[in-house]
Write a structure and sequence with these properties.
six-stranded parallel beta sheet; 24% helix; elongated; RCK_C_sf
Length: 218
């Protein structure tokens, strides 16, 4: 894929390096001269420009990109980049970094954002996930905020141990997508059974998150 990254600070460069290593074509757009360092990710295309200016994005060939990542340290900039990418260049997928969790509510379809990634929220979720049993932990918001990836860990004495996945009476807008068991990643089939200590990952709407908890006896 051809991927544009707005912001070539530490975060933008790290993302670029990973994507380049995976064989993608990456373009880094950076306005600040002190962050413009083509030698740091030599395989990427570097553009010194203001990613909030429409003409700069046109000159950079934003319309040729499959994905745009707004990765600056300024939420206002990330929102503008997202909106321009989606509305002016019809970029198929726009991912935006959220620096301040209080601004997360803005990062929606209205601003052109397909996926909002909040580092503080992810770190908090990882902490909660590691110590919480029986509670719903939201890991990530997906696709314009209409669905979430959530996790719930079964305690060792769960009454669902030994019962088949097909026996779970989940709400309509929830799907069990993965079971993490020890070092295994299990794509659940109807006949697969649950065990105490399983970490269950669901894609669901926010409205039924607590219904999942109830369905699992918590």
């Amino acid at each position: 894929m051809r991927i544009a990254i707005a912001g070539a600070g530490a975060v933008g460069r790290s993302i670029a390096q990973e994507l380049v290593s995976d064989g993608h074509q990456v373009m880094l757009i950076e306005r600040d001269r002190k962050h413009f360092d083509p030698n740091s990710v030599e395989q990427a295309e570097w553009v010194q420009a203001d990613a909030c200016e429409l003409s700069s994005l046109e000159d950079a060939g934003m319309h040729l990109c499959d994905v745009v990542i707004a990765a600056t340290g300024d939420d206002k900039v990330n929102l503008v980049v997202s909106l321009l990418a989606k509305t002016e260049f019809a970029v198929r997928r726009v991912i935006a970094r959220v620096n301040d969790p209080t601004n997360e509510w803005l990062f929606t379809e209205s601003w052109g954002v397909d996926v909002a990634v909040s580092t503080p929220r992810l770190l908090a979720a990882m902490v909660e996930e590691s110590v919480t049993i029986g509670d719903v932990v939201r890991l990530m918001t997906l696709r314009q905020g209409q669905a979430n990836l959530v996790e719930i860990t079964l305690d060792e004495s769960t009454p669902f141990a030994g019962r088949a996945v097909s026996e779970l009476e989940l709400p309509r807008d929830a799907a069990l997508v993965t079971i993490l068991r020890g070092g295994r990643v299990i794509v659940p089939q109807p006949d697969d059974t649950l065990e105490g200590g399983d970490e269950l990952l669901f894609v669901t709407t926010a409205a039924v998150e607590q219904d999942i908890k109830t369905a699992l006896g918590y």
